[in-house]
Amino acid sequence: MTLKKSQRSLRAWTKQKWRTKSGKKSSETGERYLPEAAIKSLTAEEYARTSRKKRKDTKKGKQHSKQPNFDGYLKPITEELQILKEVSEAVFHGEISLGIGVDWLEAETGRKMSRPGLKKYVDKRYGKR
């Protein structure tokens, strides 16, 4: 059975490792609960700011709290982007298949990408072959 885009997105969302920076329960500390990659991409100051906003909104009785506006909430992860570049160049030049490319990406970054997704990225970045 083929999953809808929203179902694939939810599946990817649930497979991420979610936690607080301290490793304690968010309900005990008031910290923001985020995917591990997002926590790693935030500076200590940015994480403190987003956690302060979460605590403030929780006190107001809100279950959900939007992220504060600041540059870099979801910063590109340089190492992962470099691996994506290497993989996409190898696919574009015909050195590896899309299947090997997505396996390489997952092995190196822990992130999954579909073959059609990688093909779309390569075509957009380098042009269709």
Helix/sheet category: mainly alpha
Q: What coarse outline follows from CA principal-axis ratios?
A: elongated
Largest sheet: 2 strands, antiparallel
Count of distinct strands: 2
> What is the end-to-end distance?
30 Å
Radius of gyration: 18 Å
Estimate the helix proportion, in percent: 55-70%
Mean pLDDT value: 85
Q: Order of strands across the biggest sheet? A: 1-2
**Any low-confidence stretches, pLDDT <50, length ≥5?**
none
The tally of structural domains comes to 2
Number of H- or I-type helical stretches: 7
Strand content: under 5%
Summarize the helix and strand pattern as letters: HEHEHHHHH
In words, what does this structure look like?
The chain is mainly α. It folds into two domains: 17-74, no CATH class; 78-126. The protein is 59% helix and 3% strand. It has helices at 5-15, 26-29, 36-41, 44-59, 78-92, 98-109, 115-126, and strands spanning 18-19, 34-35. It has a two-stranded antiparallel sheet with strand order 1-2. It is elongated and about 55 Å long. The mean pLDDT is 85.
